[in-house]
Amino acid sequence: MYEKKYNYSLFKEIFIDNPLMNKFSSSLIWNLYDKDNLFLTTFRYSNDGSYSNCEDEEINIDENSFISLASPIEMDDETINQWRKQLEDYELIQPIQQLSIIKLDKNNLENEINKLQNIEISYGTFKAFGARYSMTPSYLEYGAVESYNLKLDNNDYFEIKINANNDIDYKDKVKINIQFSNENNTKVSERFIYTLLILMIWDFRLTELFD
Fold first, then answer.
1. What is the 3-state secondary structure (H, E, C) of the chain?
2. Can you give the pLDDT of all 211 residues of the chain as single tens digits?
3. pLDDT given for residue 2 in this prediction
4. Phi, psi angles (nearest 5°) of residue 139
5. Cα torsion at 201, 206, 209, 211 (round to 10°)?
6. Which end of the chain has the smaller Cβ count within 10 Å, N or C?
7. For the stretch 73-85, what's the b/e string if a residue is b when 16 or more beta carbons lie within 10 angstroms of its beta carbon?
């Protein structure tokens, strides 16, 4: 959801040398940065100990490199398609939907947000969404949830609200209102927005709106 960077030695310790994480890391796509934190390319770890880019060409990573988990918001369509093909060719299944097939306009995320405003979902679906991603609830007087929010360390903030009342039932339909902001009045990370949009579209089964 946010871009956490690892120096190479820590990345190797957590994702390569750790047997539990190793089996997942080879199917994930990563960002590679140089010693000055400048983006170089995306890559994948191969089980033979090497690293390759989206064209399946081997790349070198040294101790001065930094690494983070890649997001589609940072890739062009050609790169995404190359990675999908490579994962398919090697019969690799990702533990997360990293390369989402949902078509979002990455150059106009505000428009994509507006598509979700006032969408109807069940109250049960709303509560499951907030709980699944460990969001902070806001309650009405008798325990009904009227909103969930999520705040990152950089003060990026997300809130999803509904028209709730104290008599609401899990099967009742509610309209959602979503908002992104930053408490420092800086621009909200596109990665943060993109990730939450994807999660809502999947969880609320709204993929047909983004064909």
1. CCCCCEEHHHHHHHHHCCHHHHHHHCCCCEEEECCCCCEEEEEEECCCCCEECCCCCEECCCCCCEEEECCHHHCCHHHHHHHHHHHHHCCCCCCCCCCCCCCCCCCCHHHHHHHHCCCEEEHHHHHHHHHHCCCEEEECCCCCEEEEEEECCCCEEEEEEECCCCCCCCCCEEEEEEEEEECCCCCCCHHHHHHHHHHHHHHCCCHHHHC
2. 556 899 999 999 999 999 888 888 889 999 999 999 999 999 999 888 899 999 999 999 999 999 999 999 889 989 999 999 999 999 999 888 788 778 888 889 999 999 999 999 999 999 999 999 999 999 998 889 999 999 998 999 999 999 989 899 999 999 999 999 998 989 999 999 999 999 999 999 998 888 7
3. 59
4. -105, 150
5. 80
6. C
7. bbbeeebbebbee
Nearest CA-CA partner of 139 in 116, 117, 168, 172? 168
Domain ranges in the chain are 6-89, 109-210
Q: How long a stretch of residues is the chain?
A: 211
Look at residues 94, 103, 90, 105 and name the one whose alpha carbon lies nearest to residue 29.
Answer: 94
Q: Which CATH class is domain 109-210?
A: alpha beta
Judging by beta carbons within 10 Å of its beta carbon (0-12, 13-18, 19+), is residue 210 exposed, middle or buried? Answer: middle
Q: Are the C-beta atoms of residues 129 and 155 closer than 8 Å to each other?
A: no
